[in-house]
Amino acid sequence: MGSGLEAGTQHARIVSGLKRCDNIITQLLDFSRSRPAGTVPAEVDSWLEVSLNEEAAKLPDNITVTCRLNLPKLKANIDPDLMQRVIVNLLSNAAEAMNTKGERTVAMIGRTPQIEISTRLVASGIEINFTDNGHG
């Protein structure tokens, strides 16, 4: 018979998996409804900074998040809810590429997990880049 610690770990995995499934199902249902984007004008860097601060606080402590926001006062029409989902997904994916429950993966040994977010203006519009130093 396994120890209580193993059962606790398995329970945490199950709960985490259920939350992930619930999130995926919600996103699929929202996508299938195909509602028009509810855009509002927003200063891109200011909005992004607030969103990133909220979401970065939820990441494991060993991950460093750096922002290089280069579009001060530039406004764009965005759907804050949809953009928030994008931010959450990109940060989560980057964190998962580098960490497994706060422990470093073999590929990350000797490196500090880092995520860098930057903004810039390009010919086709505004570009928001997410870069991590994880495997892959």
Percentage of β-strand residues: 25-35%
The beta-strand count equals: 7
Quaternary state of the chains: single chain
Helix fraction, binned, reads: 40-55%
User: Compute the gyration radius: what is it?
Assistant: 18 Å
**Distance separating the two termini:** 38 Å
**SS content category:** alpha+beta
Tell me about the largest β-sheet.
Answer: 3 strands, mixed
Query: What general outline do the C-alpha atoms trace?
Result: flat
Written account of the structure:
The mean pLDDT is 83. This protein is flat. Helix 2 crosses helix 3. It has helices at 4-33, 44-56, 80-98, and strands spanning 40-43, 64-68, 75-78, 99-100, 103-104, 114-122, 125-132. A 3-stranded mixed β-sheet has the order 2-6-7, covered by helices on one side. A two-stranded antiparallel sheet has the order 1-3. By secondary structure, it is α+β, with helices and mostly antiparallel strands.
Summarize this entry quickly.
With 136 residues, this protein is α+β, with helices and mostly antiparallel strands. The protein is built from three helices and seven strands; from the N terminus they run αβαββαββββ.
Tags for this model:
single chain, alpha+beta, two-stranded antiparallel ribbon, 7 strands
Fold topology:
Blueprint: H1 4-33, E1 40-43, H2 44-56, E2 64-68, E3 75-78, H3 80-98, E4 99-100, E5 103-104, E6 114-122, E7 125-132
Parallel strand pairs: 2-6
Antiparallel strand pairs: 1-3, 4-5, 6-7
